[in-house]
C-alpha cells in the first residue's frame, strides 16, 4: 500500500526548550493516526510541523513521496497537498456553506468547483443547508462544513487539531462517528490531535502516545490500551490500578494471589490491573475484598474494593450486579497481566 506520509527523526527546539524530539512514523494511504498526550507534550507542535506552519529543527517530512521539509528542503503549506481542520473551524462568516467549500477550489473552472462542492455537501450530508451562513448552522454542522472544505481539494493527508473540543459531550460522540464515517468514505489519510483517551481509541487505526516531546508508544488502539509499554502510558490511556508484587518468570505473586504475566519479569514489580478486568462475585475468586464505595453510572458502576492486604482497587462492573457498601465479595482477574519494574 502506498505511503501517504513519512516522518523521520522530527525535532523542534525553541531556544533551549525541546518541544518535539526524534519523532518518527509513517502512514499508509487511508490510515488514521491519533496523536495523544497531556498538555505541552508536543502533539500540536508536531501537527504544525507536518502542516508547514513551523520549520523543523531537525528531521525529514515526506508527503505522498515528496520531500517537503528537512535537509535544506522547505515546501510552503499551500503546496504540500495537506488539508487542515482547526479547533475553531475558521469558516468565513460572510460566505455560505457552499461558498466556504468552493473557496478551497480556487484555480478550478466554475463547472468543476460547482460539481465538487455539490459532491462534498452530499458527502457531509449538508445538501439542504448549502445556502446558510455559519451563524445559521449548529456547531456540528459548522464542523462538517470545515471538514468538507478541507477535503474538497483532495489532500493527500488531512490534519485535525482537537476538532471536537468546542462541542458538548453528547454532540461530541455523534460527531466522532460522523467524521470517522466521512473520512472512511473519502479514503482519507488523517492525523488527529486530542487529549481525550476515548476519542483516540475510537478514531484511530494507530495511536501515538506523546510525553515531553517524545513518542512513548505507537501501535493499534488495542495494543496501546491492553499492552502499554510503560506505567505512564497505562495511566494516561485509562483508569489503572497498580498492585505491588514479586515476579518470577511469567508469574507474579501479589495480593490477588499468583497470577500470569504477559511477559517474564524478575523481582519487585507493579502489576497493571484495569478496572474492567476485575470480576466480582466470582465463583473462582481466590481473594476476598470489601466493598468500600459504589458509584452508579447507568451503563456501569465503579466500585472501590479493599483487599485483606489493605490495598484499594477500583473495579468497573455491570450495573445489574447488586452490591452494597461493606459487603464482602469474591474477586478474580482476567489474565495474563502486564507488569512493570518497581521504581
Task: Give a verbal description of the structure.
There is one protein chain. The chain folds into two domains: 3-234, 3-Layer(aba) Sandwich (Rossmann fold); 239-341, OB fold (Dihydrolipoamide Acetyltransferase, E2P) (Beta Barrel), CATH 2.40.50.140. Helices cover 23% and strands 40% of the residues. The chain has eight helices and 19 strands. It has helices at 43-51, 97-103, 110-123, 139-151, 169-186, 197-203, 221-226, 231-236, and strands at 3-14, 17-28, 32-36, 58-63, 66-70, 73-74, 82-85, 157-161, 189-194, 206-211, 214-219, 241-254, 257-273, 278-280, 287-296, 301-307, 312-317, 328-333, 338-341. It has a six-stranded mixed beta sheet with strand order 7-8-9-3-10-11, sandwiched between helices. The protein has a five-stranded antiparallel beta sheet with strand order 2-1-4-5-6, covered by helices on one side. The protein has a five-stranded antiparallel beta sheet with strand order 14-18-15-16-17, with no helix packed on it. Strand 10 (206-211) and strand 11 form a beta hairpin. 37% of the residues are buried.
Strands, helices and their partners?
Blueprint: E1 3-14, E2 17-28, E3 32-36, H1 43-51, E4 58-63, E5 66-70, E6 73-74, E7 82-85, H2 97-103, H3 110-123, H4 139-151, E8 157-161, H5 169-186, E9 189-194, H6 197-203, E10 206-211, E11 214-219, H7 221-226, H8 231-236, E12 241-254, E13 257-273, E14 278-280, E15 287-296, E16 301-307, E17 312-317, E18 328-333, E19 338-341
Parallel strand pairs: 3-9, 3-10, 7-8, 8-9
Antiparallel strand pairs: 1-2, 1-4, 4-5, 5-6, 10-11, 12-13, 13-19, 14-18, 15-16, 15-18, 16-17
